[in-house]
Amino acid sequence: MILCRVVGNAVATVKHPDFERYTVLVCQPVDPEGRPVGVSFLSVDSVQAGVGDLVLCAREGNTARQILAGGRDSPHHSVVLAVVDEVRTGGSVLAGPGR
Amino acid sequence: MQLAKVIGTVVADRKDPSLEGIRLLVIQPHDHEGRPDGPPVVATDPLQAGPGDTVEWVTGREAAMALPRTFAPVDVCVVAIVDHAWGDTRRYNG
Known about the structure:
The complex is a heterodimer of chains A (about 100) and B (about 90). With about 100 residues, chain A is mainly beta. Chain A has a single domain (about 1-95), classed as CATH 2.40.50.220. Chain A is about 5% helix and about 45% strand. In chain A, the strands form two sheets. Chain A has a five-stranded mixed beta barrel. A two-stranded antiparallel ribbon of chain A has the order 6-7. Chain B has a single domain, classed as CATH 2.40.50.220. A six-stranded antiparallel β-sheet of chain B has the order 3-2-1-4-5-6. In chain B, strand 5 and strand 6 (about 90-95) form a beta hairpin. Chain B is globular, with a radius of gyration of 13 Å.
């Protein structure tokens, strides 16, 4: 699982049928202090997350298929599976927007 | 799953039978601010995307799942044509 900040979304009309009904979020990986790490990617939302939220993402197809409708043959590869309230590491606390 | 810009097409006459009728595109992966991420890759395209389009694409086993024949030797596939995406500082039109 990857700690990410939601920085945007992507809207598409033409898409695979298994992606209908779902919001696709632009997720920027962050370190435990909240600093951006690496390159942003897209993830299907399963928890009603929004821009600014700190979230957990899984970039792995089997995890995504277990959470999202579509069953064993769906092409989902990445899913937002939790909205993070806070992350404590050593002395630092990284909080989501609601805390 | 990531954003990419379609920058070209690939034509291959001799190929695995499961790829018959499947379009191949050259896509340049990028982040939400348009910065390229790594080298271009070749992706299968069941959606009729074309050069200039912004697309969403998947890798791994899930790529073949998006094709009509799901048992195909494919590891990159386009799954959506992006109308618009926006991030922290700018907005893209697909």
